[in-house]
Amino acid sequence: MKGLDTNVLVRYLAQDDPIQSAQATRYIETHCTNDNPCFISQIVLCELAWVLESNYNQSRDDIASMVENILQVSQLEVMESEVVWRALNDYQNSNVDFPDHLLARINEARGCTETMTFDKKASKQPGFQLLR
Q1: Confidence label for 132 from pLDDT (cuts 50, 70 and 90)
Q2: Which of the chain's ends, N or C, has fewer CB atoms near its CB within 10 Å?
Q3: Taking every annotated instance into account, which residue ranges of this chain make up the domain PIN (predicted)?
């Protein structure tokens, strides 16, 4: 199994650099197969959401759609996909960033009852507690 870095995934999705996008496309479409999927970690998904929002001005709906598509592609294996699905659902039903929701769901899966935060917006979501 091969893992994909965020920059490869971004080039594949954005198709904004003629050379790197072509290389990413060729690699993903040739080497990521049903029998031998490529691995995507939760870190890559966090970075992807951040890059799409801050560098590509993608909307929350667009980001959610891209993460959902990644989860559904059998040629890609997402780390602890069930946790990512829960975080994606949380993200789609709130105004908090995807990485925050993913963090809370990862922590929950590891037995944490709360994720302590200074982020007031995140603290209003289930799984978070504002640290005072």
Answers
A1: very high
A2: C
A3: 4-124
